TrEMBL record:
Full protein name: Nitrilase like protein 1
Record key words, sorted: Hydrolase
Organism: Habropoda laboriosa
Protein's UniProt keywords contain Nucleotidyltransferase: no
GO molecular function terms noted in the UniProt entry: hydrolase activity, acting on carbon-nitrogen (but not peptide) bonds, in linear amides
Entry-linked Pfam families: CN_hydrolase
């Protein structure tokens, strides 16, 4: 039987939720047409606002209309979706939200959720750039167990989590075969660290790494690096997007590549 195909997607979210949703739908349809069984979307695929007030006001709970629409996309196209992290409204906190990665199966059901543990805070006085996720996001408190999917045991993380190898190693020890890092990586740090960090996480865990990404200019305050990619357990980049809204496919070969690499290293 042929190895399963995954699609890693790249987009430029703005505060226009309808436009962002249309992009997710179109990329999902493209992934399905090319026989992918799961499509991965970046952090903030629902929207990327330029101020705290709008970030909170636009957030919805996981039973809201946005996630309901994503479920319909998955069910209609008979494809799994990894969406993370979405802006999740919290019923017990009106000043903060959760940055939540969800996985929806091909029947349109949520099968796993992970709330971002490591928040990205940057207040650079010299450049005047201030991106303080902790101003409006409540950090998650739990590492979620990897889940069985058509491509293997999938572990959920989000963006800045990739800088913490302890999390990746914990997920590997919990049985992960594929690590995910849906991201909105800043341009400057992305140019320097994006690929090398993701390859390091793959090499040290002997897992596939799938990192969907935001790309380009979102607003006056925010530009993302892009370069969504898929990396095999040897640390080789086997699929990568360029600088625009797009997707790239790659095979996940657990029976051959993953097994052999872990035997070689250990």
């Amino acid at each position: 039987m042929a190895n399963p195909l995954v699609a890693v997607c790249q987009m430029t979210s703005t505060n226009d939720k309808e436009k962002n949703f249309k992009t997710v739908r179109e990329l999902t349809e493209k992934a399905k047409c090319r026989s992918a069984c799961i499509a991965f979307f970046p952090e903030a695929c629902d929207y990327l606002a330029d101020n705290k007030k709008d970030v909170i006001a636009m957030a919805q709970p996981l039973n809201g209309s946005t996630v309901t629409s994503y479920k319909e996309i998955a069910k209609t196209n008979k494809i799994w979706l990894s969406l993370g992290g979405l802006h999740e409204a919290l019923c017990d906190n009106e000043s903060h939200i959760s940055n939540t990665h969800i996985v929806i199966n091909s029947e349109g059901e949520i099968v796993s959720t992970y709330r971002k543990m490591h928040l990205f805070d940057m207040d650079n006085k010299s450049t005047g750039v201030r991106l303080m996720e902790s101003d409006y996001v409540t950090p998650g408190q739990k590492i979620e167990s990897p889940i069985p999917t058509p491509i293997g045991k999938l572990a959920l993380s989000i963006c800045y989590d990739m800088r913490f190898p302890e999390l990746a190693l914990s997920l590997r020890n919990m049985g992960a075969e594929i690590l995910t890092y849906p991201s909105a990586f800043t341009y400057q740090t992305g140019a320097a660290h994006w690929e090398v960090i993701l390859r390091a996480r793959a090499i040290e865990t002997q897992c596939y790494v799938i990192a969907a990404a935001q790309t380009g200019t979102h607003n006056k305050k925010r530009v993302s690096w892009g370069h969504a990619m898929i990396i095999d357990p040897w640390g080789t980049v086997i699929g990568q997007c360029s600088e625009k809204t797009d997707m790239v496919l790659a095979e996940i070969d657990l029976n051959l590549i993953l097994k052999n690499i872990r035997e070689i290293i250990f």
